[in-house]
């Protein structure tokens, strides 16, 4: 097996066509006993889009003398599983492997020589304390804060549902200011969570720079120049959210707060749609505040209410539906085959239920002034939709606390659902 340290550091998706971590030159070549892997299976649930799952299996590597390393070394290298969602949620521990294309491996077998470093790709998940499944340094984990914001937002929406629904069943009295302001707070938390969700997808592959990026924002806000650049991608200080010099031999990675990812990546597309849907939906929480629309909610101008209050709910809720469906498809082997073994699928499912509820709230709201039945169902849709969002958010929070189970990587290549 080649002892050469490879001078390219990319994510598993580079093997399937799209790198999401920059390529760097490493002048210091370190020895390592990494096994050589090749892609065993690559899965894309929808055509045109990038693969969302991949399995890499070990492959024997010829030495410089032309001999092939023993089977015992090969047996110690289990298959490696990768999924776009688990990678985006930073759920992989630090277990580096070398991956070579099938064509390169075929040439190596025919020639009886070692694979050149340029023909190998180093896949390395840069997370410290790989022996622990519980994530460390949650303070600087962007996926953790995405989940926290959605849990808080969903909880506020549940409270808002009680404010609206209980008076309809003759429990308590109507409190319009409380319901309006709780809706605004819930919508704002959803907007912040959706934005961080977009940032998370935009920076897939170097999420460990989230902490330093936040610190730099705070430093610039205080008018104090940063004393040191952002750390390198594998530095311990990067994972703790501290600044440092990093590895001087590598090109600096920059954390992006705005920008565009690949439209062919299901995860990014879903998060991008989610962010804009939340932004449009947020408009209805602003126009629903007291005195924004005259005489709202008892006798407001119908045209103004329909355009600026109910329509943003319908459009935003429809965006939530599309985003949830894409996130469910992302973790499926086939676009039509549910993956009940995946936490990500259940998160997407409950968010889909909540999105349908919020969309129905706006759609039925058009007739709420003239029909008590429509008003009742509109409010009820918000109520059960909020609970569905809360369930999905709690499951998402649980997902972000844990890494993938390393013991499962020893299973046969086609046995796992990630």
Strand order of the largest sheet: 1-6-5-2-3-4
- Structural class by sheet pairing and helices: alpha/beta
Beta-strand content: 5-15%
Mean pLDDT across all residues, rounded?
75
The N- and C-terminal alpha carbons lie at a distance of 29 Å
Output the radius of gyration: 25 Å
Helical proportion, percent range: 40-55%
SSE run: EEEHEHEHEHHHHHHHH
Task: Find the count of extended strands (DSSP E, 2+ residues).
Answer: 6
Low-confidence stretches: 1-34, 62-71, 122-130, 225-251, 409-416
Please report the number of helical segments. 11
Shape: elongated
Biggest sheet features:
6 strands, mixed
Walk me through this protein's architecture.
By secondary structure, the chain is α/β, with parallel strands linked by helices. Strands 1-6-5-2-3-4 form a 6-stranded mixed β-sheet. It has helices at 71-75, 84-88, 102-111, 142-165, 176-202, 210-221, 236-239, 266-287, 302-330, 343-365, 372-401; strands at residues 9-10, 36-43, 53-59, 80-83, 97-100, 120-123. It has 11 helices and 6 strands. The longest helix is centred in the last third of the chain and has 30 residues, at 372-401. Helices cover 46% and strands 7% of the residues. The two termini are 29 Å apart. Helix 4 packs antiparallel against helix 5, helix 4 (142-165) runs antiparallel to helix 11 (372-401) and helix 8 (266-287) runs antiparallel to helix 9 (302-330). 46% of the residues are buried. The model is unreliable at 1-34, 62-71, 122-130, 225-251 and 409-416 (pLDDT under 50).
